[in-house]
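Practice problem 4.
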């Protein structure tokens, strides 16, 4: 198919070879001069750029808290943050409950069995919470006898 195309390279190669075979004193310099631009382009493209390794970053420690705080100030700050966290979680739980009530009303209006849907959703939520608690227990190395405690198990000193 390529031989019938006007893009066939064979006649051009044969013509080049016929002209190159003629005894011409300038054929080698002309060949080298015609190859020089391609060689320069390839040399330029193949050039490797190397960059200096970046300097090591300087570590800046968090300076939000006063480093000279007392233990009582740290405990008071932690209690305050815990209260804010609990308020935020309560607001999120209230919003989720209101959403469930709205969806329940919408489902009842659409003729769905909202009690069955709510039962399945509660089961799914309980399973997710149990899986999350199991993940936390595994992460902190808690076993069956100390799952209810908030502190990780203490190693005995053997005395």
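Answer key:
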């Amino acid at each position: 198919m390529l031989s019938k195309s006007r893009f066939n390279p064979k006649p051009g190669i044969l013509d080049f070879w016929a002209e190159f075979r003629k005894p011409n004193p300038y054929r080698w310099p002309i060949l080298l001069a015609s190859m020089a631009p391609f060689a320069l382009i390839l040399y330029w493209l193949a050039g490797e750029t190397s960059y200096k390794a970046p300097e090591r970053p300087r570590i800046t420690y968090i300076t939000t808290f006063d480093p000279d705080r007392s233990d009582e100030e740290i405990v008071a700050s932690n209690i305050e943050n815990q209260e804010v966290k609990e308020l935020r979680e309560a607001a999120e739980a209230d919003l989720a409950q209101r959403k469930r009530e709205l969806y329940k009303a919408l489902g009842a209006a659409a003729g769905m069995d909202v009690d069955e849907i709510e039962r399945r959703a509660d089961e799914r939520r309980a399973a997710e919470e149990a899986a999350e608690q199991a993940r936390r227990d595994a992460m902190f190395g808690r076993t069956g006898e100390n799952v209810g405690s908030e502190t990780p198990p203490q190693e005995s000193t053997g005395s």
